[in-house]
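User: Structure please.
Assistant: Input sequence and predicted structure:
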Amino acid sequence: MLVDFRCFNVEYCGKIITGLLAYFAFRNVSIKFLYVCFVLIILSALVQVLYDWFNFAYPWESFNDIKGIFHNTGIWGGFVALCSIFVFGTGLFLVKRYKIVLLLLFVLLIYFAYRSTSRAAWVAIMFSVLYFLYAKYKKNIVSIVGILIGFILFSIVCFPKMYHLKAESAMGRTYIWKTSLPVIKEHFLLGTGQGGFQVHYMKRQAAYLQENAMSPFTRIAGEIDNPFNEFIKLTMEYGIGGLIILLILLYYVFHGNFNHTHSAVVFRGMLVGILVFAFFSYPFMYVQFQLLFVMCLAGISYNYTGNLMEARMLRHTAWIITLVFLVLFPILKYYYCSLRWERCVGRTDFSEDEKIEEMGVLYPVLKTNAAYLTYYAYLYSERKDYVNSVSKWKESLRYKVSYRQYISVGRDLERMGEYDEAEAYWKVASFMIPSRFTPIYLQIEMAMKLKKYEKADSLITLFLMKDKKVDSPKLERMNENIVKWKEQIHHGL
């Protein structure tokens, strides 16, 4: 099968349609209204800073710990960086008054981006500022040469320091990109299909670490949901064809038949920031960055000189409306079923059987959702219906492969008496994240249960050779049992 479209579900289709509708909406509003939207986004960033500042949980927290509405400081840094890019571009090209105010706001946002320690955000700001300076002075060759020399010298000094600031993190991303390449080669032309990274990557990571047991990556490898590079993810899932289409679109955006007004330059500068940040992170997992990307495209196309866009929009309006209505019903149905699933998870008055019955009703609509299938499998496992739980675990692995799923399916296979298959899953899990102790501990526990003492003894030796990254109560309990089992083996019991 050249392309695996199993993950192309209604949810993904709904996201595409929503993005197109958002583009058409912003494309047909005034440029002033679009600027007001960007100003509100910047204000929202400042509000998030104040909210986090006054709601720190611990006295030692500072600006370094601000996350805003995001789950980590890196993505927050990228968001603040884009806000600072907009302020810089506006002050450089559009606003003649209040430049001092804009400068102070720019410095403040740069400070927040700096304290986030997001190197991807810093690099995004650097390249966007470089683009703005190029657009400002492109008719002056001497200025352009001076800007390039200054940028190169600045990069030579700063980039090595940025790398060593979090060298382990940078090395980890490099290994993730390297591990992704074989999948890209296997599906070079058309890709793996939407969602293919989550299906293929963890298996490739396990294979890579099994072949390269001495790699430094074995110590830092973890559960990977994204490659920290949107371009690698795009190429893996949509092949070289998808990457070429994106590059053609970007070429058209930066070199198309547009009025090169100052507002278009500002939006292009923000687009540069988004793309550079996307090269080292995963911004498009968040709707905020998706919205900023769409708004930038709309702002640029607003300055289109010809009537081609308008003519095509008018000519294909009927087709667009038809398409929306064709997908509207399944999208709404999917959304309704997702709400029922969410309510079912939170219902404390439902028994396990009632929750399983509800999950069965929702299955035809949500059967391609890996999180739904994982919860469905968990319910069967709690009811000790291991045949159905294993079935659902394996079904969820078709749409997302993860360390936790391999551990869980192995546990239920062991409970069914399928010891060899359970061991096979735990072995793969042990190579997915070699620093974890659970897979090898479960194999030792099963060997002791089956009275395979020689095998258990060799596994215990491997367990005791592993380096601890952090101490935890769970690991302490494991060590206590390991000591007890080792004594049993040495006493011939």
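The chain has 22 helices and no strands.
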